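About this split. The held-out portion is used to measure sequence recovery: a designer receives only the structure tokens and must propose an amino acid at every position. Recovery is the fraction of positions where the proposal matches the reference. Here is one held-out target exactly as it appears in the evaluation file.
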């Protein structure tokens, strides 16, 4: 039987090559032979205050990027999270089955709140909403980058806990899917930190929509080291290793092949080749993006996706409410 696949991306900032190589590329590959649902998680984005019109435009930007990288609404369901009310509803039920202790241990919460007492409650509950996204669709597989590992573990813990209490068939217990190459693309200016949408330095990441000049500048400035050898060794050569990973992911080569191809050559030439392979990989995405973003079909696609997702979610919610004894009909 085809596996049910679910994943989501936040409509915040510019989607970068880390998001693409760690997650979006997997989304596209999984479309064949699986039953895929891909979401733009706008409710997650308001854990920090957002300008409403900017948020709305970012939702459509990410939707257009989904389609531009190769998601096909004929094969996969593509929709916006807040268009299906089950996400927020299931989130509450799961919140009543998660512990403040386990949520306090989430590294993303610790990083973002830094002990600040006026951090929004939504930031704390964020991983529970993510668990609801996944469990709402009886998901088997969740393709994500490494930074989501802890959230996937929490989702599994909550699902198992609820199943133990309310019946084994209440939730499907999902598995994360992490790539061998690309699951953690590091920042170009600081290869000890992950490439992030919220970094201050624009040259720390490459957005899928960056122009050629910007891509060139960001890569040519990327932090390397002084020994001059193109060798994959993330421990002692994090900068060069990150560039090797990016090059390999775009060129469809493993790190060992990249090392072999570039043995005995210098960083300057390697960076120039990386600029080229990056531009060549992003150009077709950017061309499709421009067309899709300005077409009226985008909204229709998302509305249709929400209807299809909603129908699946509704069935799961009926089952969950029944198990918990919720509602007048129960
Ligand atoms: P978000 O929007 O921060 O990132 C989207 C996807 O990109 C991956 N990613 C990376 N992969 C490799 N290298 C990087 N530097 C890098 N940075 C980000 C992320 O792991 C993610 O797969 N909480 C999620 C969104 C979400 C979700 C879900 C995902 C909400 N509900 C349900 C899966 C299932 C997030 O903030 O991703």
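Reference sequence for scoring:
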């Amino acid at each position: 039987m085809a596996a049910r696949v679910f994943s989501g991306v936040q409509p915040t900032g510019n989607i970068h090559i880390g998001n693409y190589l760690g997650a979006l590329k997997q989304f596209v590959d999984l479309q064949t032979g699986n039953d895929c649902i891909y979401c733009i998680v706008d409710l997650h984005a308001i854990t920090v205050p957002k300008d409403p019109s900017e948020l709305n435009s970012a939702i459509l930007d990410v939707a257009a990027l989904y389609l531009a990288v190769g998601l096909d609404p004929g094969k996969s369901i593509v929709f916006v999270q807040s268009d299906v009310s089950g996400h927020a509803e299931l989130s509450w039920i799961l919140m009543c089955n998660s512990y403040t202790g386990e949520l306090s241990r989430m590294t993303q919460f610790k990083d973002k709140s830094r002990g600040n007492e006026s951090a929004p409650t939504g930031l704390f509950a964020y991983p529970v909403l993510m668990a609801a996204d996944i469990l709402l669709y009886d998901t088997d597989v969740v393709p994500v980058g490494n930074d989501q590992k802890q959230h996937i573990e929490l989702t599994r813990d909550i699902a198992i806990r609820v199943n133990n209490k309310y019946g084994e068939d209440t939730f499907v217990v999902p598995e994360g899917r992490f790539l061998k190459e690309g699951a953690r693309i590091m920042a170009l200016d600081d290869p000890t930190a992950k490439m992030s949408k919220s970094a201050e330095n624009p040259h720390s990441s490459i957005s899928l929509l960056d122009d050629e000049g910007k891509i060139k500048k960001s890569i040519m400035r990327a932090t390397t080291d002084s020994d001059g050898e193109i060798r994959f060794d993330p421990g002692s050569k994090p900068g060069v290793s990150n560039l090797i990973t990016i090059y390999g992911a775009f060129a469809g080569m493993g790190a060992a092949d990249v090392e072999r191809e570039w043995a005995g050559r210098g960083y300057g030439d390697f960076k120039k080749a990386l600029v080229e392979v990056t531009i060549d990989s992003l150009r077709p995405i950017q061309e499709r993006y421009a067309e899709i973003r300005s077409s009226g079909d985008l909204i229709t696609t998302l509305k249709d996706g929400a209807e299809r997702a909603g129908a699946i979610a509704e069935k799961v919610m009926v089952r969950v409410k029944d198990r918990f004894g919720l509602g007048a009909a129960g």
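Annotator remark: The two ends are 31 Å apart (CA to CA).
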